[in-house]
Amino acid sequence: MELKGVEKSYGELRALKGVELSLESGRIGLLGPNGAGKSTLLKTLLGLVKPDHGTVRVFDRDVSREPFEVRARIGYMPEGDSVLPELTALQFATLAAELCGLPRAEAIARSHQVLHYVGLGEARYRKLGTFSTGMRQRARLAQALVGDPKLLLLDEPTSGLDPRGREEMLALVLDIPTRTGASVILSTHILPDVEKTCDQVVVIAGGEVLYAGDLEPLVRPDRNTYEVRAKGSLKKLKQTLELGECIVQRSGSTLEVRVPDGKDATYLLNLAVDEGHQLRHLAPLVQTLERAFLKTLADAGH
Questions:
Q1: Which pTM value belongs to this model?
Q2: Model pLDDT for residues 135-192, shown as the tens digit of each residue
């Protein structure tokens, strides 16, 4: 996937602002706050939304010139309850397969296989209107998979699911690339879902791409940064550490402390003890995707 200078506005709202993005195959997390432009970006990749400026290429094809050729290789699970309640799960998946161009008999056979794969084998003759939220999500995933896509776009696939349903959906997201060879773009605001399933990340806010690349550098621990909790005044401890040339941020009852280059936890401990502070906790700061995401937004002024 390659986007160059992509702009899209809805009236006064600029949903995408000069997006430059190049992504390789794999499991890709698309992150951003509500209204960041995630859904517009997905629809632009599909050719369902035409950009005002710029070019979009998927599978080395220009989406604006060859939208059907691109969509023939993509499975799309849109956000929201997009099912046809009067159809059975089998009829719904079969319809999607026929729309992908499969002959009727092959579409039915393929639908049986996919519904078993997503855990709806026993419920495939029930109408979708009788399904729970989790079952409808699985049915929507089945229709996205039934055409054997090479790229799968999942827009908030775990929205509304209970913890067990969420874990089961994430297990499928992890398994799909291994089983089918398809790449997956997982668009969500639930950061732990991305941390569990993806190896690449795109962070978007206000229509701008703030980060695009491997997940690992974002969550790599920083050996020079520690989390500290203490008895007594955190304000005074913060002042002590800053006088020792540490960079200190407060997060609730914890201080996040970056010591000068070449220093370690012993240096930090000695600074505190020498001024009479009693530390209750001192450990390397564990980097999480949530922490990295919030820092990325803050650094960009969002």
A1: 0.81
A2: 999 999 999 999 999 999 999 899 888 888 899 999 999 999 988 899 999 998 888 8
Distance CA 269, CA 278 (A): 10
Any idea of the CA torsion for 52, 44, 57, 199, to the nearest 10 degrees? 130
Query: Tokens for 241?
Result: 């550490």
Residues 288, 196 contacting (CB under 8 angstroms): no
Q: Strand 200-205 to strand 247-251: parallel, antiparallel, or no bridges (unpaired)? A: unpaired
Cα–Cα dist 159/73, whole Å? 25
Give dist(CA 301, CA 293) in Å, integer: 13
What pLDDT is attached to residue 126? 96
Which three-class secondary structure state does DSSP give residue 145? Answer: helix
Under DSSP, is residue 5 helix (H, G, I), strand (E, B) or coil?
strand
Helix (H, G, I), strand (E, B) or coil at 106: helix
Residues of the chain below pLDDT 50: none
Q: In angstroms, rounded to a whole number, what is the distance separating the alpha carbons of residues 75 and 153? A: 6
Q: Packing angle between helix 265-274 and helix 234-243, nearest 10 degrees? A: 120
Q: What confidence score (pLDDT) does residue 276 get?
A: 93
At 211, list the tokens: 């980060």
Cα–Cα dist 296/178, whole Å: 30
Assign 103 to helix, strand or coil. coil
Give the per-residue pLDDT at 6. Answer: 96
Q: What is the pLDDT of residue 162?
A: 87
> Can you spell out the DSSP letters for 213-280?
EESHHHH---TTEEEEEEES-HHHHHHHHHHTT-EEEEETTEEEEEPPTT--HHHHHHHHHHTT-EEE
Q: What is the pLDDT of residue 219?
A: 82
Q: How far apart are the C-alpha atoms of 176 and 186, rounded to whole Å?
A: 12
